[in-house]
C-alpha cells in the first residue's frame, strides 16, 4: 500500500467519520443538544432516547453510511480495497473522537456495522444476527454490541476473509471494547440498564 494513499485515506476517512449527524439532526428538529440527553452520546441509541424513532433511524443510517462511503470511495479512487479499509477504520475513529466536539463522539457501533456491510459482507453476516439475537433476549444494547464485536473477527477468518481484513476487524473490535469500557464495567457488576430502563432504576 502506497504511503501517500494511506495518509490521504486516513485523513479523508477521519474527517468524513467525524461528521456528528446525531447532533445535527436533533438540533435541526428543535430538540437541543443531544449531548445533554441520556448518556450524552451523539449516536443513534441516545437519539432514540428523545422519543423520536425517525431521528434515531436517520442517525443510524447516516452514521453507517459515512463509513461505507469512505471505504467504497477511497477503494475506487486508489483501486485498492485495503486503502478503503484504512479509510473505514479512520472513519470509525473520527466518529468516536471528532475534533469538532473535543474528541467526544459516539461509541461506533453503527459506524462499525456500516463498515462491515460495505467492506466485509462475511463479517456483517456474523455481526447482524448475533447482535439481534443477543439484544432480543437481553434487551441490553452494549452486551449485543460487545458480543458481536468479539465474534466478528473470528467469523470473518473462518469464512475466508483476507488476513488484512481480519486484522482490521480485530482492531475495530478492540476499539468497540474501548469505547464501551464503562458499559463493560456495569455489565460485570450487573448494573447495566436494559433498553428503556433508566440507569438509576437498574442500580
UniProtKB/TrEMBL annotation:
Reactions the enzyme catalyzes: an acyl phosphate + sn-glycerol 3-phosphate = a 1-acyl-sn-glycero-3-phosphate + phosphate
Membrane topology of this protein: Multi-pass membrane protein
Pathway where this protein functions: Lipid metabolism; phospholipid metabolism
Enzyme class (EC, first level): transferase
Keyword field: Acyltransferase, Cell membrane, Lipid biosynthesis, Lipid metabolism, Membrane, Phospholipid biosynthesis, Phospholipid metabolism, Transferase, Transmembrane, Transmembrane helix
Annotated compartments: Cell membrane
GO molecular function terms attached to this record: acyl-phosphate glycerol-3-phosphate acyltransferase activity
GO cellular component: plasma membrane
TM ranges: 6-25, 55-77, 83-103, 115-137, 157-178
Enzyme Commission number(s) of this protein: 2.3.1.275
A Pfam family it matches: G3P_acyltransf
GO biological process: one example: phospholipid biosynthetic process
Purpose of the protein: Catalyzes the transfer of an acyl group from acyl-phosphate (acyl-PO(4)) to glycerol-3-phosphate (G3P) to form lysophosphatidic acid (LPA). This enzyme utilizes acyl-phosphate as fatty acyl donor, but not acyl-CoA or acyl-ACP.
Subunit structure: Probably interacts with PlsX.
Family: Belongs to the PlsY family.
Name the record gives this protein: Glycerol-3-phosphate acyltransferase
Organism lineage: Bacteria, Pseudomonadati, Pseudomonadota, Alphaproteobacteria, Hyphomonadales
